[in-house]
């Protein structure tokens, strides 16, 4: 059965001029639209009380299981306004499928793809005015579906009451004035995820586990951390919230194969599919840090980049560890392959190029 969302529009929406001022310089994840989606699941009643309502705080019992045992998952996607004013999102079926895989791993209830996408549509329909114009850039409305154990119970078992929500936040260009390569700290003390753990699920706990490494990165003058496999501390896995690609001089585009502890990014899989169109040869396999270092130093690897919904494609400039550092791409604005891939993805997402793969779904 599919869910229908009861819409209760607030009468005190943010005035147009104030909303426009936010859209002119939204930053990331700081400002939220007028409304949100909420729904409740109970073991006995399934999903119910699906609604679009005024954005505002949850009332949570201090014993809510999520606050103690972190039973929570989320997703991240973007809505783009095309030239004709219509609003579209990118491969939401892939996010819905990943949502259900994450839910299963965290012992949370599943949701039908139609309901998951229906929730996005219901919210964007009401808050359509918050979707920035993306015809000449990459501004978007970032959509954040999430669900958590809201049952008040301190026993350890899957919660029997769960809250689902979607919030939305306008996002500007991640990079203003050209791509800026990030520097990465190679985390030797901390792992993000291990064999049999939750690394392949999009859950808040993985992010909590990555923060100490993030602090270490900052202390060493780096922007982000890159994590190695937890077993041997030898093979590249990913960043705290982005997958990694290496570009070889012969056109091979290599990314770590999925191990169970790497998050399967929608951007990652889209780049693997797009590669051929761009005269690149995609390859998924194990990549050791040593190989990365040697091939970057010899010039065999010409560029490296990270990818994910939020920043699309981000060039990687330097890698730093206690052993020293090496450069893995050109100085300045990053390499041509990262730019080409970034443009190809954004052109489809924003409607500047034809959507030949049926990747777009209209939200409003
Ligand atoms: C969300 C996420 C990514 C990127 O996934 P996309 O679907 O491309 O946005 C990569 N790694 C981690 C750990 C993530 O949580």
TrEMBL record:
GO biological process: isoleucine biosynthetic process; L-leucine biosynthetic process; L-valine biosynthetic process
Matches recorded under PROSITE patterns: AA_TRANSFER_CLASS_4
TM region positions: none
GO function terms (MF aspect): L-isoleucine-2-oxoglutarate transaminase activity; L-leucine-2-oxoglutarate transaminase activity; L-valine-2-oxoglutarate transaminase activity
Catalytic activity entry: L-valine + 2-oxoglutarate = 3-methyl-2-oxobutanoate + L-glutamate; L-isoleucine + 2-oxoglutarate = (S)-3-methyl-2-oxopentanoate + L-glutamate; L-leucine + 2-oxoglutarate = 4-methyl-2-oxopentanoate + L-glutamate
Pathway listed: Amino-acid biosynthesis; L-leucine biosynthesis; L-leucine from 3-methyl-2-oxobutanoate: step 4/4; Amino-acid biosynthesis; L-valine biosynthesis; L-valine from pyruvate: step 4/4; Amino-acid biosynthesis; L-isoleucine biosynthesis; L-isoleucine from 2-oxobutanoate: step 4/4
Entry keyword annotation includes Glycoprotein: no
Residues modified to N6-(pyridoxal phosphate)lysine: 202
EC number: 2.6.1.42
Enzyme kind, highest EC tier: transferase
InterPro entries: Aminotrans_IV, Aminotrans_IV_CS, Aminotransferase-like, B_amino_transII, BCAT-like_C, BCAT-like_N, BCAT_family
The keyword Signal appears for this protein: no
Alphabetical UniProt keywords: Amino-acid biosynthesis, Aminotransferase, Branched-chain amino acid biosynthesis, Pyridoxal phosphate, Transferase
Cofactor(s) recorded in Swiss-Prot or TrEMBL: pyridoxal 5'-phosphate
Cited NCBIfam families: ilvE_II (TIGR01123), PRK13357.1 (NF009897)
Protein family membership: Belongs to the class-IV pyridoxal-phosphate-dependent aminotransferase family.
Name of the protein in question: Branched-chain-amino-acid aminotransferase
Source organism (scientific name): Barrientosiimonas humi
